[in-house]
Amino acid sequence: MSRGPWAAYSCLAASMLLVGSYVGLSKLLLSVFPVFLLAWLRFGIAAVAMVPWVQRGEGEVPLTAHDRRLLFLESFLGNFLFSICMLYGVLLSSAVAAGVVMAAIPAAVALLSRIFLHERIAPRVMAAIGCAVAGIALLALARDSGTTDAATPAHQSLGHTLLLCAVFCEASYVVIGKRLAGQMSPRRISALINLWGLLLVTPLGLWQALSHDFAATPLHSWGLLLFYSLAASVATVWLWMRGLRAVPASRAGVFTVLLPVAATLVGVTVLHEPFGAAHAGAFVLALAGLLLATWPGADRNRSPLPWSAPG
Predict the structure, then answer these.
(1) Which of 31, 36, 68, 207 is deepest in the core (most CB within 10 A)?
(2) Torsion of the alpha carbons at 180, 311, 200 and 177, rounded to the nearest 10
(3) How far is the C-alpha of 285 from the C-alpha of 279, rounded, in Å?
(4) Among candidate residues 130, 124, 229, 240, the one with its CA nearest the CA of residue 185
């Protein structure tokens, strides 16, 4: 990559660093806002910021009934369920765990693409799936190596399970997005599924808002919420698409390695979460699986994570 377009590489790297950061920092927000209220506020703020992306662009055909059903399904799985599973998963486990488990997204995309799109799984991607499974299994054992978190082992196991569910929700988002990418721009897809996500979570968000003491919420938490909302829905998409203008999608996938790195760094340096030998082993396996799944190979037109960012 030494002679590549460094501005584009910087955009791709910044996109994945933002994703990893907001996944980790969401634990701070969860100490202030309950899960459904946090998701509702995030979707609401993003909806305002993404208004310019909603309009149909030049050359885009009107949505068919089939496209609308795919958009709803993509939002239900990739926005609504992903957000709920990810937030509860982080709440019950740790940002370090989220970084390790989220690294399995490209492997999960390959697996679902095989099942639903009948795409071939190369031997290297099979090895990536094996690394992801081994890393998550080692992470489950790492919970006994000491923790500063009040969560019990049972809660941590549930948290890991919910994070894994979030991985497959995000993988479903990417696979469905492959069906829609030819008809709509990525920015418009992101804006429309965010609106569906807002609609889906509004009843639950309002329910928790009625009992929440907004006056007691510190100012810095509102600032972190604004960062979380704009980073998750706007900045990551814009940066990723900006980078893809000059970098092939197959090569861009390598930058997803920064997602677990950022989430783990936030967990260790900001949240002071434990990081023992078992965590390190799980982290190395996760990174190895991610690189195996995304490093450019013979199939250079394929990208496990073509334009999306988790959440």
Answers:
(1) 36
(2) 10
(3) 10
(4) 240
